[in-house]
Amino acid sequence: MGSLDDGITEELSTWLLAQPVFFVATAPLGSEGHVNCSPKGNRGEFAVIDEHCVAYLDQTGSGVETIAHLRENGRITVMFCAFSGAPRIVRLSGNGTFVLRGGGQFEELARHFPNPVGIGARAIIVARLDRVADSCGFGVPLMSFTRHRLALDAWANKKGEEGIALYQDQNNRHSIDDLDGI
């Protein structure tokens, strides 16, 4: 039923890139902190850098848990589920880092994504993988994908670059557990 892979194969890369949604899980070191699991829409916002490295665009949002947890300890798991077609779950686990927009490697990393990076992207999360696990997904329901929501892009575009920067300053400085964000 389940298997461990040495890395991301070409077949797996194609499958990952075709999934419309993925989930990112991180946690603080302390047992009193909150585990975070965030759904992410994949409109070309996930990239396979090589067989042991992936990245995704981190959009500005109400929280900053992933960045805060990565800053503290680096642990990350990215999970994909097949909601159509053959059942499958893939978990990519490893050590994550982030590059904030305007940071030295941001533009270089942005070239790995097929679409221009919108103004709402605050960072690129990079995960260097030490575990690639594939499991059956028999318990995942079959669902039909309709379309991606456009609300986040519209919100970011309405705010503009200065408004996004102000929003991040006011709302993304600390995590819900008061860890440093951006």
Structure description:
With 182 residues, the protein is α+β, with helices and mostly antiparallel strands. The protein has one domain: Electron Transport, Fmn-binding Protein, Chain A (Pnp Oxidase, Chain A). 24% of the residues lie in helices and 34% in strands. Strands 1, 2, 3, 4, 5, 6, 7 and 8 form an eight-stranded antiparallel β-sheet that branches. A hairpin with a 2-residue loop joins β4 and β5. The longest helix has 21 residues.
Task: Pick out its properties.
eight-stranded antiparallel sheet, 8 strands, alpha+beta, 182 residues, 34% strand, Pnp Oxidase, Chain A, globular
How would the blueprint of this fold be written?
Layout: E1 3-5, H1 10-18, E2 21-26, E3 36-41, E4 46-50, E5 53-59, H2 65-72, E6 75-81, E7 89-100, H3 106-110, E8 121-135, H4 151-171
Antiparallel strand pairs: 1-8, 2-3, 2-6, 4-5, 5-8, 6-7, 7-8
